[in-house]
What we know:
Elements: E1 8-15, E2 20-26, E3 33-40, E4 46-52, E5 57-60, E6 69-70
Antiparallel strand pairs: 1-2, 2-5, 3-4, 3-6
Amino acid sequence: KFIPLKVENLQALVSRPNKMVKLTWDFKGNAKSFKIFRSKNGKVMETYEFVSGSMREFYDKYLTPNTQYTY
């Protein structure tokens, strides 16, 4: 059975010149993977990416200027 657990200290570092966001988080436990959700301009939050459970950062690159991203 899948039991979703929360990450802690989720932070986003925005680099406008590089058109990217770096997400970082803490997680005290073992996970097979993390599911990253994202929405653009207030639309519905959707599954965007899966990353390894050993990861504690994710780079969202090639973003569109003047677009609001929510994770």
